[in-house]
Amino acid sequence: MIRTWRTFALLLAAGLAASACSPTYVLRAAWEEGKILNARKPIARIVQDTATDWETRDKLLLVLQARQFAADSLRLNAGNSYTLFSRVESDTLVMVLSAAYKDRFEPHTWWFPIVGRVPYKGFFDLDDALRAQRRLESQGYDTYLRPSAAFSTLGWFNDPLLSTLLRYDRVSLANTVVHEIFHNTFYAPGQAVFNETLANFVGGRGAIEFFCRRDGVESETCRAATGAWHDDLLFGEFLGGLVDDLRTLYARTDLSPGQKVREREAVFTAAQRRFADEVRPRLRVDTFASFTRDPLNNATLISRHIYYDRLQLFERVYESRDRDFTRAMNDIVAAARSNKADPYAAVQALLTPAGGG
């Protein structure tokens, strides 16, 4: 499935207008976005072209079907997104940089107009990203730099399907389409974590709805989508426990900042061992295997946590709505719009007797 280290809503349109960004950054972002937009071709035309290979045609048809499902069945604001295709030169579209304080579970953020503060920034040039990473590390931050193959402009432009996404399996591809189209439908300024976790819920559950309705509940695609969402929930629960352990450590007043940083290593080691022994054997798709290999710090964890913070909360709302996904999604969005300062609290209220349905 789509994971936080692979795809981000990079808020590129806002970045183009951001006075806080350097002129060089703005011009490079505008240039790269312009290349993507200029390379767009209608997916329908590519599908009809007899020169298109079978695998590409099959995945492009899936994209058209998934976006139509998102628009017609889920009532998402698909607009013209994913009706066009752009071939890009590299498998990596952008480099995404995150940073966090070492002695507390708090991200460094960047400010953009319209969308507010976000805990990541995209770079089209690797050297620029590395310089920014070194600068943050010299200031004492944990950092995490990783490639991304997709982004959303939140409906500001007609987002094309990028060739980088064709390497994804069918379930991941459908998940991506629904996830990114949901960003066009709802986005709470300044609530990056809530936005991404909710989009993860909509993408995962939406892919299940799409495949199980289209192919049948006994189909391989339905089982694969269901298994991937099972893994997301399981990993989210595990990650939430790890974050709670770290926050408990960082809240200790008897430890200096340096002691907290040293003692967190034992927490990281225990978590990776627990994941290998207790969590990974229960995974159905096993797309989280890298968790036991990758080095852990607050930045790497926050970059994952963005997609999994209280993910089970959205699932509980879904269960409370008699497993009616569209109803649950609409109720969650309405609740979030009613309390922009704390959308999680608004969603939690849906599970109380007064808010339950």
In short:
The chain has 357 residues and is mostly helical. It has helices at 12-17, 23-38, 43-48, 54-72, 126-138, 170-185, 192-215, 220-250, 257-279, 298-308, 311-320, 325-338, 343-349, and strands spanning 41-42, 84-86, 94-101, 110-112, 116-118, 121-123, 141-148, 161-162.
Please outline the helices and strands:
Blueprint: H1 12-17, H2 23-38, E1 41-42, H3 43-48, H4 54-72, E2 84-86, E3 94-101, E4 110-112, E5 116-118, E6 121-123, H5 126-138, E7 141-148, E8 161-162, H6 170-185, H7 192-215, H8 220-250, H9 257-279, H10 298-308, H11 311-320, H12 325-338, H13 343-349
Parallel strand pairs: 2-8
Antiparallel strand pairs: 1-2, 3-6, 3-7, 4-5
The gyration radius over C-alpha positions equals 20 Å
Number of domains: 1
The chain-level structural class is mainly alpha
Order of helices and strands: HHEHHEEEEEHEEHHHHHHHH
How many strands, what sense, and barrel or not for the largest sheet? 3 strands, mixed
Q: What is the number of helical segments per DSSP (H or I, 4+ residues)? A: 13
Which ranges are low-confidence, i.e. pLDDT below 50, for 5 or more consecutive residues? Answer: 1-21
Task: Determine the strand fraction and express it as a percent band.
Answer: 5-15%
- How do the strands of the widest beta sheet line up side by side? 1-2-8
Distance between the termini: 30 Å
Number of strands: 8
DSSP helix fraction: 40-55%
The coarse overall form would be globular
Which whole number gives the mean pLDDT?
86
